[in-house]
Amino acid sequence: MPVSPRAPFSMTLSLVGEVRRKGKWYVACCPVFDVVTQGETERKAVANLTEALREFLLSCFERGTIDEVLKDAGLMPVSEYFPRTTRTSRNHTVPLQIELPFVRQIPGTSATAVAHR
User: Fold this and answer.
1) Is 21:117 a contact under the CB 8 Å cutoff?
2) Which CATH architecture has domain 12-77+91-98?
3) pTM exceeds cut of 0.70
């Protein structure tokens, strides 16, 4: 079977965010990347955080700084993992799934494809 010159793909980064109520707003943050958003509901705050993280990580990739950002955040390949102490917090945690779409150009072709979210 021939390989298609269009090869869309995406990857998903699983993170943990924190959400707390502050007055009439909900504040959501991802301490790993120091990204904070807010929303009128918890759901909206988490949705805003997910989008902000996606845009932040894509911009890091585009600028060629993603390796540095991941290392600065203390992230490492699983094979190099060593448990770290975690801080205690009064906030509750929420799972975050950040989908990062990419374009891949197959060498020797002019075709590109975008993985849609």
Assistant:
1) no
2) 2-Layer Sandwich (3.30)
3) no
